[in-house]
Specification:
With about 325 residues, this protein is an all-alpha fold. The protein is built from 16 helices and no strands. The chain has one domain. It comes from Solanum tuberosum.
Length: about 325
């Protein structure tokens, strides 16, 4: 119902873009990872990054998930029994393990496993093969429109982002390297924190990554909201948020902040009013609403790792520690 009966998703998804196809491929990648079909997951991941560049943000959590503790040769990864959820205290401690310096150090020392290398080679080969084919067919126009354009894109209208007003004021001038860094740095830092905190619960990690990526992006349009709406049904079973309580507050706040922005957008686009400053303030409020909703979703989420350690890997780790 959250996806199929959502008027927002089918309005955006039927106006000429391929967002539902992208969403379906991402859901299929999650399913392939859960079933240990890494070759398929890598193939589809390379394809989806070629079609839309934003799923590149999922590369790091996927690499973190492909841990030798979960994936053993010739064996399907064991899924955690989700019917027995962890308590709130266990959830917090489990989340903090990923941020532990020792855990990060172990990850860096065991980074280059054959599964991670295989996933990178297959997905990278798929991406570069498709990019090469279409570059051969359409030349530099394709490369610019599909990839390079996103590095320099500026949108002075139709943009929920807090950076829109600065972009509007400097539209005829190229942004300096410092300005580009300032716009990307908060986004990168938030992504890294979310990945290292929630990577093992990777469907939830994908969701919070996408919400944060869209909220802090230099350009934000309504089309981008579909990216995380498709992941919302996957995390609802693990939330303690009640619809009649905080859930309703979050929904109404998010819709009100967006409606407030659209009011000023209407006055600008259709009435020709000089309301750029008011529109920018509305963008700030929309970012605050997105941040508030995201924090509440994280606080009310029951941390549920997808995989459990194989008995062989656990015993091997125990012997190594002794």
């Amino acid at each position: 119902m959250v996806w199929l009966l959502n008027p927002f998703t089918f309005t955006i998804g039927t106006r000429g873009n391929c967002e539902p196809i992208i969403c379906a491929i991402i859901l299929w990648i999650i399913l392939c990872l859960m079933n240990g079909r890494l070759v398929q997951a890598a193939f589809w991941y390379g394809l989806v990054v070629h079609m839309r560049i934003y799923p590149i943000i999922y590369a790091l959590p996927i690499i973190l998930v492909l841990d030798p503790l979960f994936f053993q040769h010739g064996a399907k990864p064991a899924l955690v029994n989700w019917s027995s959820r962890k308590s709130k205290s266990q959830q917090t401690s489990s989340c903090k393990k990923l941020m532990d310096p020792c855990c990060i150090c172990n990850f860096l020392t065991s980074l280059f496993t054959w599964r991670r290398i295989m996933f990178g080679l297959i997905s990278g080969a798929m991406f570069f093969l498709l990019t090469g084919i279409f570059f051969f067919l359409y030349g530099w126009d394709f490369l610019h429109e599909a990839l390079l354009y996103h590095l320099t894109r500026t949108d002075p209208r139709h943009n929920f982002s807090i950076y829109f007003y600065h972009i509007y004021l400097h539209y005829e001038h190229e942004l300096s390297n410092l300005e580009k860094l300032v716009s990307f740095l908060p986004q990168i830092l938030v992504q890294l924190v979310l990945v290292f905190r929630f990577a093992q619960d990777f469907s939830f990690c994908f969701f919070v990554q996408t919400v944060a990526f869209v909220a802090f992006n230099k350009v934000m349009t309504a089309q981008y909201f579909v990216w995380f709406f498709c992941l919302l049904p996957l995390i609802l079973p693990w939330t303690n948020m009640k619809l009649r309580g905080k859930g309703l507050v979050c929904i109404l706040l998010w819709m009100a902040a967006q409606g407030h922005w659209l009011l000023w957008g209407y006055l600008l686009e259709f009435k020709g009013k000089n309301v750029f400053l008011q529109l920018w303030v509305a963008g700030l409020l929309f970012l605050a609403a997105n941040t508030f909703v995201l924090i509440n979703i994280i606080q009310q989420h029951t941390y549920s790792p997808v995989f459990q350690q194989s008995s062989y890997a656990a015993s091997k780790k125990h012997v190594k520690q002794r």
